Amino acid sequence: MAAVTLEAAHSRAELLHQPRSNKLGLWIFMASETFLFSALISARFITSGVQKPEDLNQALAFGLTCVLLVSSISAYLAEAFIATGHRRAFLAATRVTIVFGLIFIGGVMFEWREALHNFPPGTIYGTAFFSLIGLHAFHVLTGVLGLAVVLNLGALGHFGPSNSWPVEGVVKYWHFVDLMWVIIYPALYLF
Amino acid sequence: MADTSERQRFDELTTEIHGRPLGQRLRIGLLVMVALAVLTLVEYAIAVEVEHPLLPLLPFAALKFVLILEYFMHFSAVLGKGDH
Predict the structure, then answer these.
(1) In a domain, A13, yes or no
(2) Residue from the list B10, B26, B65 with its beta carbon closest to the beta carbon of A85
(3) Which residues are paired to A163 by β-bridges?
């Protein structure tokens, strides 16, 4: 009886103590990534001022922003579902997030094809544009890979209310990618 | 009856661990989503209508940044505030 009580108390202690060092590590990583993005955003304004080419595809950029925002809510839902034990809903929400991430990458590739003609990488604005969009698209790609890993593990029965940190970590990274786009979008297309 | 009380206990435990019940989380997520969509539309409208949109756009971009940081990424939990 005493062993059972001790085991229950131990399980409860495990449930209530989140892996704080993992969280702190992720935040430090995201802070360092923010410096990288900040450097390129600064370079865009230092080299080109607030000027932007007339032939930017505004409609496509607006569409990409909407795609990323919708993917952010599905990622948020995936995290909420697994934390409350709704595995099937978690899997569905993660799949939706991955699909939107892939649509975003497809849109960026389409945009690059146009941009290569309008403002090639050799031009001042082109250098800033391709560096920033390329760096961000790479982060989206790694986010999609991370989501695919947690989707696969989740489908195999991993994670649950007592162990949702890996999902939370990947979803936080996905939101970080969204956060960077919130700055990159006006910096490249709107200012 | 047993199922209901078990479910209730499960909800209480997950709420204790993760801060908020699922229904409340969904409501917050949808509200933030709507706010982000509206702010993005306003940004776009300002960029199209205003000749030098840098200053007018900054507050909207900053607000979107804060909304994502706080409600999607639970930043205040890092500082030991909030119940995330």
Answers:
(1) no
(2) B10
(3) A160
